[in-house]
Specification:
Elements: E1 3-12, E2 15-24, E3 31-37, H1 45-56, E4 60-63, H2 76-87, H3 90-105, E5 110-120, H4 122-132, E6 139-143, E7 160-166, H5 174-186, E8 191-196, E9 209-210, E10 215-216, H6 219-237
Parallel strand pairs: 3-4, 3-5, 5-6, 6-7, 7-8
Antiparallel strand pairs: 1-2, 2-4, 9-10
Helix pairs in contact: 3-4
Length: about 240
């Protein structure tokens, strides 16, 4: 095994972006690939660790950048300021994640026909919007994602969809869960939703420790959701 890592600079119009690409150089290619969308703070060590873990399992992984090279949020206010322009302009959000997808597909180690996407929190919203757009990806996986519809014109969903959700997540209440289930059913999607009881937002992030605001790490939900991801990727990419 020879895990290779590199930073990849790319552009969305005049915005310079920088993603993290990781793969096992010892495996014969081209490799099935996974696009990873970060949470509201920007591309960080958390998603880079996920990319390394996926590379160990034989996938090429690309942790994209939705905000711009070097842009990270440290405080709640900074994270909100980075995320809000994209959540308020879902067409821009879709263009930005699509640019990341095209950059991943262009890597020589990647089998462009076998690509899936996954995301955390804000990133979960992004990958669901990618599916909503009718993008030609094999599957998308949302971890404790925001479930709000995009408001963009509806398309036939081609990707298989897996939503991994904390049932007590205040950022995706039961009415949002019901709405997204109806939405993807109407779009003809092959969708699944795994809800973890007594589980809050950000359950995969060991740094999440704010029960008052509904964000708390949960070891069991983290482990179970990763296992569900692995089964899903085996189904859609192998």
């Amino acid at each position: 095994m020879a895990i290779r890592e590199q930073l990849v600079e790319y552009r969305d119009g005049s915005t310079v972006l920088e993603g993290f690409f990781c793969h096992d150089d010892a495996r014969p290619g081209p490799l099935p690939a996974v696009l990873i969308n970060h949470a509201w703070n920007g591309r960080d060590e958390f998603v880079e660790r996920k990319a390394r873990r996926l590379a160990w399992h034989g996938y090429a992984a690309f942790a994209l950048d939705m905000y711009g090279k070097g842009k990270r949020g440290e405080t709640t206010a900074q994270c909100q300021a980075l995320m809000t322009p994209l959540t308020q302009d879902r067409a821009l959000l879709l263009r930005r994640i699509t640019t990341g997808l095209e950059t991943l597909r262009a890597q020589p180690q990647v089998d462009a026909r076998r690509v899936a996407a996954m995301g955390f929190c804000f990133g979960g919203l992004c990958v669901l919007d990618l599916a909503r757009s009718g993008a030609d990806v094999r599957g998308v996986v949302s971890f404790h994602g925001l479930l709000k519809p995009s408001g963009l014109p509806a398309a036939r969903v081609r990707a298989k969809v897996l939503m991994l959700h904390g049932y007590d997540d205040p950022m995706a209440p039961p009415e949002d869960v019901l709405a997204v289930a109806k939405e993807f059913t109407a779009a003809g999607a092959d969708w699944q939703l795994h809800a973890f009881g007594r589980t809050l937002h950000a359950f995969t992030n060991p740094q999440a420790n704010d029960r008052e605001h509904g964000m708390l790490y949960d070891e069991a939900a983290d482990r179970r959701s990763w296992h569900a991801l692995m089964q899903f990727l085996e189904e859609v990419l192998r």
